[in-house]
Amino acid sequence: MPPLISVLMPVWNGEAFLEAAVNSVLEQTFQDFELLVINDGSTDRTAEILGRYTDPRIRVISLDHAGIVVALNHGVAQAQARWIARLDADDMCVQDRLESQWRAVNDHPGAVLCHSGVENFGEEAPTTQPARLPKSRSFTAMRLCYMCPVTHSSVLFNRQVQMEAGGYLPEERHAEDYSLWGRMLERGEFVALPQKLIRFRYHGQSVSRKNLSTQVALTKEIGARHCERFMRLDEANARRANAVLCTPTRERRWRDWGWFLTRCVPRLRWKSLETFRWLLWQSTKVLLRR
Hints:
The chain is of the alpha/beta class. It has a single domain (about 5-215), classed as Spore Coat Polysaccharide Biosynthesis Protein SpsA, Chain A (Alpha-Beta Complex). The chain is about 45% helix and about 20% strand. The chain has an 8-stranded mixed beta sheet with strand order 3-2-1-4-7-6-8-5, with helices on both faces. Strand 1, helix 1 (about 20-25) and strand 2 form a beta-alpha-beta unit. Helix 5 packs antiparallel against helix 7 and helix 9 crosses helix 10. The longest helix has 19 residues, at about 210-230.
């Protein structure tokens, strides 16, 4: 029998934190899983560390170094379970992460993805509270139009739906998850769990820090495409909508915000009370600045 969940962990030269990440999976209260580790051509002690484990649930696949998108797509293709949980090799799960997410997707038959809150820790970890996770499909779409509200290490997603949505795209490396969530949202519901089920590590050698400028540029491009998709806008208006949403509230002009409210919001594919409450709150803040 195949496992119920495949935990997918790509790693490239991850010796510093790999053992803690692997152990956090093996210590889960939910036990019916495989841990699929994709060693993306590591030249440090990664292979040695993985070789110490004898737990039969661990499968290690070694590739020539080709980058995270190739590693992720290879892992998805090799996964045996219908549901795939992601974990980066420098992050950790809390003990009931898989149990909580498995229960959530079974309680929501239309769900194609479940994600959770995270606890930030490590070097220069932000101390500010993250924005509240969106609950509705509508507000998830709105958030995707200007930022990524889904932490990659926190997801449990339906493998078949992920593949039907096109998987991770090589041209979007360093923001490969952001576009994927938009394509998957078109195919079903996301379940957001406010519990902090992931410990998200900040450190100087993280891939996101090293590629921040590329990530920022891609995020803007993908956000505009989400505006085009979720508000049914042409390319020019989608870029304008993304620019309005990305502008800090204290700098947002009422003329631009009014255009967004009257020309873009009515075209939203999905609507919810959560979205309209957020729009009202944003409008109030813009008006108070006038």
